[in-house]
Each structure stands twice: as C-alpha cells, then as structure tokens.
Amino acid sequence: MTMIIMIRIPILTMMILLCGNNKQTTTFSFPLHHSSITKRSRSVVRQITIADKERKQQRQNTVVALNWGKISDNNDITTHEKNDNSMLATTTTKDEIDNNNISNKIKLLKEIGIKNLPYGLYQTLLTNAQEDVIQKRFWIVDNSGSMSSWDGHRTTMDDDDSSSRWLEVDEIVTLHAHLSSVVSAPTEFRLLNLTKKKESYTSILDRHFPSSLTVFRGADRFRVGYHSANNKKKNRIEKDRQRAQSVMVRNGPSGKTPLSESIQDLRKDIIPMLPQLQATNSKVCVIIATDGCNHNAQNIDTALKKYTETERNQELVNALQALSDLSPSNIKIIIRLCTDDKPVVDFYNSKVDAQNHDLDVLDDHVAEAKEVYNHNPWLNYALILHRIREMGQADNLLLDLLDERPFTSWEIQEFCQLLFWGTPEEEEEDWNAFLQKMNDIQQKESYLQWNPITQSMSQWIDTNKLASLFSN
What we know:
Layout (H helix, E strand, L loop, with lengths): L1 H18 L3 H7 L9 H22 L15 H13 L10 H13 L7 H9 L6 E8 L10 E2 L8 E2 L1 H18 L4 E5 L4 H13 L12 E4 L9 H17 L8 H12 L3 H7 L2 E8 L18 H17 L5 E7 L4 H14 L3 E4 L2 H11 L7 H9 L5 H5 L7 H12 L10 H14 L4 E3 L4 E3 L4 H7 L3
Parallel strand pairs: 1-4, 1-6, 6-7, 7-8
Antiparallel strand pairs: 2-3, 4-5, 9-10
Helix pairs in contact: 6-17, 7-9, 10-12, 12-13
C-alpha cells in the first residue's frame, strides 16, 4: 500500500502542474462534468462526429474493397493463383526474395482487393517494397484549411467522383498505409499541421516538462510497414490501418501550408541516412500529397515581410531542390496534387517538375489516365498502376514516362514484358508476332480491369490500337 501511495503522489503533482489555475485548461484536461463543457466544445464535438459519420458512410458506399479498382469477378481468379505459384518456381525478383515470402505477400494483397493482376505487376510492387531497393518512404500530408475545398476526386466507378480535397487525401493515405503494411514497406506519414487541441496540449507540456515533449510526439505522424508480412502479422497490419484512420480523423483540415518548412525538416532527417543509401545504391521516396503552394506564418505576414506569390513559390522550389541535391540518385520525389486549381497545377507541372530531374507530379487517377491516353492510348491505365506510381518505384523509368510522351515500339514491348512477366525478355523482331503473343496471353488469362477512359472493364493492352500505330 505504501508503494502505491508513493507512486500516485508524483502523478497527482504532475496533473496539478499541467492544469494550473487556468479554467480553460482544466476544462480541456478534465471534462468531468457536462456543465464544464463549453458551447464551442460541444460544437467541435458535433462537427467531428458528423465528419466521422460522413467518412464512415463514404467507406461503406465504396464500390470495391479499399478502392483498389474494379476487377473481373470470375472463376479465372483461381487459375491466376495457380499461375502465380507456378511462376515462383522459375522467376525471382531482383534480389532473389524468398519464394514463400512472395507467395504470402501476394495472398495478403489479394485479401485486401489487389487481385487478378499479371504476375509481373505483383513482382514490380513487391520488388519496390524491399528495403534494399527503397529503404524508406516519407509522406508529407497536407491538412491545411484549404483542403476543405470541394474539388477533390474520390475513386469511384461512375462519373460522379467529386469530393473535398481532404476526403481525397484521406483515401490516399489510408490505402497506402494499408498497402505499405501488407508488403512490409517501411513508411512514415507526417501531417503538415497539428490540430488546435494538440497544439494546446503540446504547449502545456513544453512549459512544465520540456524534456518530456518527445514522449508525446507522434500526434501528427505515424509509421507502418515495420514488420515481416505473413499470416502471423495480420493483427499488426490491421492495427496499422486503424492507426492511419485514427490520425487522419483527429487531424482534419486547419491552418496554413508550411510545405517548405516540412521539406527542410525532412531533409535533416534524411541526411544521416545518406551513407547507407549510397553504399547500398538504394533510395528514399518522398511523397507530398498537397493542394497548394507554400504558405506559412512567416511568408504571409506582410507586417514582417512582403512576400509575393512568386517569392513564396520560389521558396518551395528551393526547398525541393535542396532535398533532391542531397543525393539525386538516392532520393525520389513525388508530388501528388489534390486540386483542380489551374494556377497550382500549372506551377507544379512547369516550375517544379522542370527543375527537378527525379521528381514526378501526379494528378488524380482519372486526370492522369487522360494524360496517359493522349500519349499511349493502347494502355488501360488501371487504378493499381496509379497507386504504384503514387507510392514511388525505383527501377522502371517507363512508368514515369507514361504520361509524358508516346512510347517507341521497343519501349512498348519492354513495358508489356514487365507487366506480364516481371522481367524483360528478348524483343520480338516481328511486330505482328508480338501482337499475337499479347492476344494469346490476354485471351488465356482474363486480366480485366476497370478502364477510366472507356468506363468499362477492359484488357490491359489494346492490340488493335497497337496494330494501327505501328502497322508499317
């Protein structure tokens, strides 16, 4: 009993120090009575409850599991599973991953809705999840106030994909947190802003217990994928998914867009990783999901500095360039835009993308599919291809070039070989023989995926379009 009393006294002392004499702080820390909750607090609770219900309803109305894309639902799936396992005996990944480990991961991917894919696509996904290929992924997630704007795009199978920007990024983060956990790809998500409640709590701790601040760090970030993927880890995978949803719910849109600050902070964290990255020739991927440019307390306060829009944007470009310049061959940067605002889209496509070589700017799935179709109309840009590009991949430059220019006949062959078999084979000298080979494999195996351009279930490769493009 004496021991219990000695332990409780410091805890009570700490609680008193935290609360102090401030009634507002006491109300926030210990809302024991209904009368102590202010009208504003009740309003905030109602708003959070409504937003939470809307988010839950959205997930319930999702057409496909986890929005991985609509697939053909037929008996051929069993055939694909058999083919996956048979291919394991003859095909290995770049670094010869253990066959059983691959098989377990493919099964887990199918369980979360990523199924009916060619084996080569599974292999591309799993190869880029290896730590000796991409050592770690960092997501910077924009939760600024402007993310409440209603020009976002959810993943749906109909014409109405409209949503808020925040619901779009919430879907992206939840999906990629789950995917990274399943394939054991170490990934850290960082939100731009803490909610006001978290900021108040942090400031209290900082005043009374500065050394303990790091203990409570993590309200604005979380990690997934730090485990091996097998059946015994399913509980951990589910916990990772729930943690992602919880953090996103608690940190809704508010505040400014301090992108350059966040990039600079991340740059400091990547510097100690450089020796190992360079020694192993591996990469880190930085994915920035945002709706805008650089706005923070310093550069929008005209009383302190008169920053123009151009200067604010240049500050962001400089931060991205400084990050890339650390080691260009070891750092991959992806900008995932969550807005249709034309000046912002033009800024990233013209200024940011042009000045950084290993940087890719991606739009939502449908918008990106239209760009791919303009250059390579023979390809069904299915959703899983978009997800693979969002999470970053190390080796296949062709995936980055899909929306930039038409492929040559040799590049088309290489892309199809990677899509279906996972490893490049010797190119066919006879173009007609190659087309026949594509027809045969697609007729034998029903790899149907939702096509956002035709709004129908389609094969991956349209051999008729290829025949017309290279008839001579």
